């Protein structure tokens, strides 16, 4: 079935524009006639309706909050999306809402309409809405998803802050070094000509001269390394090894493990409490972790579940999760309260992930400042030592 953008006339010759799905042009004419409209022109925009915009976490949270709130107040889905797409300012999101509105008018369920929007919505969200449709708790499901994506956005923001600070300091350090090597040190070359220089000064002068003579070569190498690194990360085997290495890094690896465990626990909790089978819930939850190495270990865990093992036994050997995850799930299984245990576990790991992010920022800041101070001090010493030697030589004459 194709999607057509059309211009038509009604019985009073008024121009009506719109979008409609039809098998072909003749089917479009027939559908318009049923609405007492006469086709003037049409354009097949099927490919254009497949969305390439991937909604951000805060946008997904806002979307679910609006849907959940308006559903709880008794509005129909068609009415909700009629309101949402008309008041949305972001053109890309507005188009997504409009497409959903059209699909709903054509009889699609909300989950199917969302699925038809290309990469706009994550699979987890679509599956959760589908479960909500089946259980009749769409408003609660939407508000649960809003809360989940809001937490994801907050934790991701704190993790970015933890990583951004050292990046900023590294950039500042490189900028300072370039200024020193390209502008400050060259002004001392003539002064240091007949002076016996210490090793550290010789090294810095050599670096300075090399950068002055071959700066374009250094720039090309740096650009080449960045491009190569980005390209390598797209290779599945390389990304697998990088993701494996991430969780082995002291301090930073523990932070990531807490975040991965938090993300998995919250997703599994949402899916399982919505009534989904534990096997299907695991299949979807593994895709939300964000680490290829950890995700690759789930095939074995799912196989164990299908062979009759408990959830705690199935996931206990997965490398990359906090050990508290398995023990807590085991307690939930033994007590017959797995659902409530998963909810408590998700909240606990959310809190721990936020705390870990804040601790990481607190730890990194002084370390990077010390590193920057040491680099600058070494350069200053390399300049001052020969000046001091020169001053002593002049004093002895």
TrEMBL record:
<dbReference type="InterPro" id="IPR003004">
    <property type="entry name" value="GspF/PilC"/>
</dbReference>
<feature type="transmembrane region" description="Helical">
    <location>
        <begin position="367"/>
        <end position="391"/>
    </location>
</feature>
<protein>
    <submittedName>
        <fullName>Type II secretion system F family protein</fullName>
    </submittedName>
</protein>
<dbReference type="InterPro" id="IPR042094">
    <property type="entry name" value="T2SS_GspF_sf"/>
</dbReference>
<dbReference type="InterPro" id="IPR018076">
    <property type="entry name" value="T2SS_GspF_dom"/>
</dbReference>
<feature type="transmembrane region" description="Helical">
    <location>
        <begin position="164"/>
        <end position="189"/>
    </location>
</feature>
<feature type="transmembrane region" description="Helical">
    <location>
        <begin position="214"/>
        <end position="235"/>
    </location>
</feature>
<feature type="domain" description="Type II secretion system protein GspF">
    <location>
        <begin position="64"/>
        <end position="186"/>
    </location>
</feature>
<comment type="similarity">
    <text>Belongs to the GSP F family.</text>
</comment>
<keyword id="KW-1133">Transmembrane helix</keyword>
<keyword id="KW-0472">Membrane</keyword>
<feature type="domain" description="Type II secretion system protein GspF">
    <location>
        <begin position="264"/>
        <end position="386"/>
    </location>
</feature>
<keyword id="KW-0812">Transmembrane</keyword>
<dbReference type="Pfam" id="PF00482">
    <property type="entry name" value="T2SSF"/>
</dbReference>
<keyword id="KW-1003">Cell membrane</keyword>
